[in-house]
Amino acid sequence: MSKRFTSLALTAHPPAATRHGRGRSHRAVAPFAAVSVLVAGAALTGCGQQRDAGVYTVMNSSTDESYHRWDAEAMARCGEQLGITIEQQSVPASQVMTKALRMASSKSLPDIVQFDASEMPTFADAGGLVDLRTLGLSTEDIPEGIVDFGSYEGTYYGAARSVNTLALFYNKDVLDKAGVEVPTTWAQLRESAEQLTEGKQYGLALSAGGAEDGVFQFTPFMWSNGGDETELDSPRVVEALDYWKGLLKDGSLSKSTVNWTQADVNDQFMAGNAAMMINGPWQVETLNTDKSLHWGIAPIPVPEAGDDSVGPLGGAVLTVPDTGDEARERTAGKIVACLASEKEQLTYALNSWMVPANAKAAAVWRERVPELDSLADQVAVARSRTAQLGAGWSSVSLALQSAFQSALTGQSSETALKRAQQRATSGN
Amino acid sequence: MTTSTVTAQTPAEASKTAAAPDPARLRHRRRLAQWGFVAPAVVFMLLFFGYPLVRNVVMSFQHYTPKTFFTGEAPFNGTDNWSDVFQGALFGKALWHTLVFTAGSLLGQFCIGLALAVFFSRRFPLNGVLRSLILLPWLVPMVVSGIVWRRILDQDTGVLNSFLETVGIGGSTPWLTSPEMALVSVILVNIWIGIPFNMVILYGGLQEIPRELHEAAALDGASAWRTFRSVTLPLLKPVVTVVLVLGFMSTVKILDLILALTDGGPADATQTLGTLTYQNSFVQLDFGAGAVVGNVLILISAVFAVFYLRVNRTEGK
Prior knowledge:
- The structure holds 2 protein chains of 2 kinds.
- Chain A has 17 helices and 13 strands.
- By secondary structure, chain A is an alpha/beta fold.
- A 5-stranded mixed sheet of chain A has the order 2-1-3-12-6, sandwiched between helices.
- In chain A, helix 7 (186-196) packs parallel to helix 9 (235-250).
- By secondary structure, chain B is an all-alpha fold.
- Helix content of chain B is 78%, strand content 0%.
- Chain B has helices at residues 2-19, 23-59, 68-71, 80-87, 89-120, 127-134, 136-139, 142-152, 159-167, 179-208, 211-219, 224-252, 256-261, 273-283, 287-316.
- In chain B, helix 5 (89-120) runs antiparallel to helix 12 (224-252), helix 5 crosses helix 14 (273-283) and helix 12 (224-252) runs antiparallel to helix 15 (287-316).
- The longest helix of chain B is centred in the N-terminal third of the chain and has 37 residues, at 23-59.
- The interface between A and B is large, with 64 and 60 residues.
């Protein structure tokens, strides 16, 4: 069909062109030139955008309707307080970093960027962020762990409004019916998961997907067992991975685990395909949409009774990029201070089910949301993924993903992790 | 609006030029006009194809990191990026997966597409309706198909395994969860996506073959298979080349489908050159390494583009 069309066009054209020949063609030059000038002009004005004095922009990843609305409300309150307009620009979480980098090269960075805390070090390392302490932000009332969470090489670049970590969610009805206690140790978890596996229902669901989700979920097992991201092939990490393999071998975990994101895990739990799951408080909003589902939450089980349950600290931090305009940066600092103030943190945390970063706000939050109490305990001892490796985390994360996926699909944990360590150190 | 004013002026102008014909000036004007026509296309190509291409090649020889976006400095590091990428364990794997994926997808898409095209070139009731229904996979955005297929192929709760179980064959195939199976599943999904494209173009090609030739073959007593091999296929050859080359170029750079289906996993079993570029550039933010893989992809596509142009040219003659 396309062929017929082209041949038709070809036969139709030449006579027309010769007939009007010269006259038409040289008349056409002017419009072409005009169009070219217009296009070029539009492109240039686009580049040289001037910042509006009273308008400040915050770039975040609140693309979900509810998060976007909560943020918009908080920004409106802070804007009113400071006598300015704050605009929100939301892009998908995976694009915040690349978009910010592109904006940096075109000198059009927003006044505030909300990064996922695991990405912040990369941007800070490139020299793109302003020390929040120089902008007058105080870290009083913020637990040390959370200050570190927002710091890179000792400098405080990112103010967290709320933090989260992983916990064990369980279906109360299913556990009661089976007479199973909420597990606290690895042995108990393995045993009860096996007991709860029945028909279409798996005992436990977790994400071992090939992205940051899977790594996030592996860290509490690795860390609680004394393993460390700097030495992926250490016996402690191998043991943790062997524990996952064991769960899979028992049949307590679905084989699809390697293909699940944390959202998939939540779907499985809600659909009754899993009696327990490892997940984070950001799922609570979705979980609560099903009124017939009675769920509980507990710390992630530890290798031996008495061990500390060390989870990963997750969440986003508000940062002020270095735009070179000091006056604007100072105002941006004030906006961050307002958005991360005790009051705003509490509002945000109550909306989003995450734990406020500020200790005073967290205390109030515990009273208001007693069912998530254990989460607040977990957060207090949780660890930041980038504390040791900073910008080097992404390489380790990629190597680790490949390793646990290999191990869960047949390879020995030792071989897989040995290769991962090699890959992490060589960068390939 | 502009055109009307210009037209209004020209008769006077034209008569002036006619009064004093100056061949050199005329030729000059004509040349200028010709360039005027070509210029937008040339500017567009240079700006949106030439520049990124050159940048990508240059970038593959640079130490290009997040810092570069601030300082604008990307020191040249010779062939470091290239040797790093080529020595990395993933590159060989990704290259192999890309080749298997492309070959498998094209073979499946083409054979099924051709079979359907031949089938639909007969006349039968509901032909048109069925033909348009088969176009559906083409209309669904790639990411949506990816997500839907991920659910269909889920080992425990997926529709496909439930179906197989009901029918009594298998039922616990680890479509996307075993490294041995994942690449095959991804290819199968891509075949499903590619069938409409192949079918439509080949169907168009079949319509161009004069009916008399088939009638003549039938009169000569040729069997259906013989007619297909000796009449249909040779006459369809130009269309076949176009379908295959275009299919190749869109398949070799696959990214979205794989990201949605497996994220390159499990255990890098579905890592292709496309996903590797993405991972290098946008996860590890090592833009130099990403550019290297990107260049390899461009090179592979370029070879086939040249092939395509040559075929087209000989056809034109």
